[in-house]
Design a protein that fits this description.
The protein is mainly alpha-helical. It has helices at residues 2-23, 31-38, 44-62, 69-90, 94-106, 108-114, 126-139, 142-163, 167-185, 203-213, 216-237, 242-266. It is built from twelve helices and no strands. Helix 1 (2-23) packs parallel to helix 2 (31-38), helix 1 packs across helix 3 and helix 1 packs parallel to helix 4. The longest helix is centred in the C-terminal third of the chain and has 25 residues, at 242-266. The radius of gyration is 23 Å and the shape is flat. Residues 96-113 have low confidence and may be disordered.
Length: 270
């Protein structure tokens, strides 16, 4: 009976936070997706607390054997603190808000940054915008991608050390792997949470988190336009096929303008 009451409170508190996230124009089905869609507006500490809350909420609902007692108090504290922080973002103090607007008008960095959004309309230079969006689509998952790269490096070092009988490389690779294993234990996950304690297999958690953090549509569309831009240049300057190159260039140019409008709606705005 006590567990049902706790689950009910967890669901209720989570719904309140989801409603607050939606006031920040968050989009998505679950709480993790809502957080991802507006994480540019969130401080790292607040983002971490919301991820913890979302993880506990999912585990409490979907895992019957999940032990609520150990995390329930921490969950309630995190909800209170996250709610207060979100309230400040939703309703900033009038004085602070006025000062921020004034600074935005006179800050050279902000004015310079706006020129980037002219690139989709400049033939040839729009590839820079495609690369910029490609980078943004991966930005939220960059820490997980870094962990995956380090995993591959540790495996390569160990394998190379075994093949060439290089004990130093084996030790370095094993050391990197141990550090990554300890780091992964503290990564919250909705997918296979118990695997975080299993050496080697906990890489699945990193892959699952990478998958949920990437803006996949923007990632693939940006890749397509980057390839089209490069291919059009190759056809014109290397193969001297001007008509085919011009057609691909026109597709990349006109499609890029549409992509600019679409990406503006999908990426969270500060």
């Amino acid at each position: 009976m006590q567990k049902k009451i706790q689950i009910g409170e967890i669901v209720e508190r989570s719904k309140k936070l989801e409603a607050m996230l939606k006031k920040l124009e968050a989009e998505g089905r679950g709480m993790h997706e809502l957080i991802s869609s507006v994480q540019e507006k969130l401080e790292p500490e607040l983002n971490k607390k919301l991820r913890f809350i979302a993880t506990i909420r999912n585990q409490a609902i979907h895992e019957p054997e999940f032990d609520l007692e150990s995390d329930f108090e921490a969950f309630c504290i995190a909800c209170e603190e996250a709610g207060q922080a979100l309230e400040k973002i939703i309703k900033p103090a009038p004085g602070k808000r006025a000062v921020r607007k004034k600074k935005e008008k006179i800050t050279p960095v902000t004015a310079g940054f706006n020129y980037l959004f002219l690139l989709p309309f400049i033939p040839g230079l729009n590839i820079i915008y495609f690369i910029f969006i490609w980078f943004l689509s991966l930005l939220s998952s960059s820490k997980y991608i870094t962990v995956l790269i380090l995993y591959l490096l540790s495996f390569a070092a160990v394998i190379e050390g075994i093949i060439k009988n290089n004990e130093e490389h084996i030790i370095i690779g094993a050391g990197i792997f141990v550090v990554l294993y300890m780091y992964n234990i503290f990564i919250p996950s909705r997918h296979f949470p118990k695997l975080r304690y299993v050496p080697l297999l906990n890489i699945i958690i990193v892959i699952a988190n990478t998958k949920t953090e990437i803006y996949w549509r923007l990632f693939f569309i940006a890749n397509i336009f980057i390839i089209l831009s490069i291919a059009s240049g190759f056809l014109v300057f290397v193969r001297e096929q001007y008509i085919a190159g011009a057609v691909l260039f026109g597709i990349a140019y006109l499609g890029g303008i549409g992509f600019f409008i679409y990406a503006g709606k999908r990426l969270p705005q500060k």
